[in-house]
Amino acid sequence: MRVLGVDPGLTRCGVGVVEGVPGRPCRMVAYHVVQTDPGAELPDRLLLLDQRLTALVAEHRPDAVAVERVFSQHNVRTVMGTAQASAVAILAGARAGLPVRTYTPSEVKAAVTGSGQADKAQMTAMVTRLLRLDSPPRPADAADALALAICHVWRGGTHDRLAAAQRAARTGGNR
To answer: By Cβ atoms counted within 10 A, which residue in 31, 69, 124, 127 is the most buried?
Structure first.
């Protein structure tokens, strides 16, 4: 399974692509950071983000897209930009006809480190170790995106297969 993970952000949006199967080590395919100019108009920033994410989905041909679920922060302006970037990422996956799943930061931390309370340094260290990289992915947005992709391979892939089996059972039972 190939998964494109997205750590949404309006100024810096991390994108990580991994391949793997549940219960086995994953392999990093690539990572990117899409940047937009904070001084640019919002519609232009969202359009650039959409174009880059759409191009990355086309380039890497993932089987699924995993996006970090926006959580409540104290800074409403930051939350709004993150939510808008998240929506663009979800749309890019949906437009390509891919399954899209969202994960909370604590779900990703628990999947990758075993603790939902892990800090950024622990996450980056585990991503580096799990993907057997020579050096940590930089910036942290890239490491977070790779962690999202790993989380989906290990947790979401199983969930998607179970859901598909349930759909097939319902469809077969309705004939």
So the answer is: 127
Active site includes 68?
Answer: yes
Q: Has 44 been annotated as catalytic? A: no
- When pLDDT is averaged across residues 98-114 and rounded to a whole number, the result is 92
* CATH number of residue 23's parent domain: 3.30.420.10
Q: pLDDT per residue over 34-78, tens digit each?
A: 999 999 999 999 999 999 999 999 999 999 999 999 876 666 777
Please identify which of the residues 19, 37, 44, 68 carries the catalytic annotation: 68
For every residue of 157-168, DSSP letters joined together read: HHHHHHHHHHHH
Average pLDDT, the chain: 89
Average of per-residue pLDDT across 105-130? 90
Secondary structure (H, E, C), 81-129: HHHHHHHHHHHHHHHCCCCEEEECHHHHHHHHHCCCCCCHHHHHHHHHH
Owning domain of residue 64: 2-173
Number of domains in the chain: 1
Cβ–Cβ under 8 Å, residues 165 and 29 = no
Mutual angle of helices 120-130 and 105-113, in 10-degree steps: 50
Whether 7 sits among the annotated catalytic residues: the reply is: yes
